[in-house]
Amino acid sequence: VQLQASGGGLVQPGGSLRLSCAASGFSLDYYAISWFRQAPGKEREGVSCISSSDGSIYYADSVKGRFTISRDNAKNTVYLQMNSLKPEDTAVYYCAARTGGFILERLWRSPYEYDYWGQGTLVTVSS
């Protein structure tokens, strides 16, 4: 069972990146998937979440209107499209999977709710 996060890199403010979270060894059809990020010296924070059971999608207020989460079950992959990037978006981004496909809105931001984690991909927003 493995999650592989990829797609990070260096981008200028205002630019875009698309992160991918690919699963191997299990099907994402039955998991809620979230993206978290952690900047140096800061706690890990929830960025966005997508369930598989009812299609619910959640975003942190700081990324609403700029980031879009989506899933492609055929490719067993979840994406995070990040537009209008800001320097404060700089962080290591992780994807995480929660068994069962559903997570309450009040819980999705808690890292303790997830069973599997990817290794992280670094996003740097700088001119």
Structure, explained:
There is one protein chain. It is built from no helices and eleven strands. With 127 residues, it is mainly beta. The relative contact order is 0.31.
Shape: globular
- The helicity comes to under 10%
* SS class: mainly beta
Cα-to-Cα separation, first versus last residue: 38 Å
Mean pLDDT: 95
Strand content: over 45%
Largest sheet: 7 strands, mixed
Q: pLDDT below 50 for ≥5 consecutive residues: which ranges?
A: none
Total beta strand runs: 11
Radius of gyration: 13 Å
How large is the count of helical segments? 0
Name the helix and strand elements from N-terminus to C-terminus, one letter apiece. EEEEEEEEEEE
TL;DR of this structure?
With 127 residues, the protein is mostly beta strands. It has strands at 2-6, 9-11, 17-24, 31-38, 45-50, 57-59, 67-72, 77-82, 91-99, 116-117, 121-125. It is globular, with a radius of gyration of 13 Å.
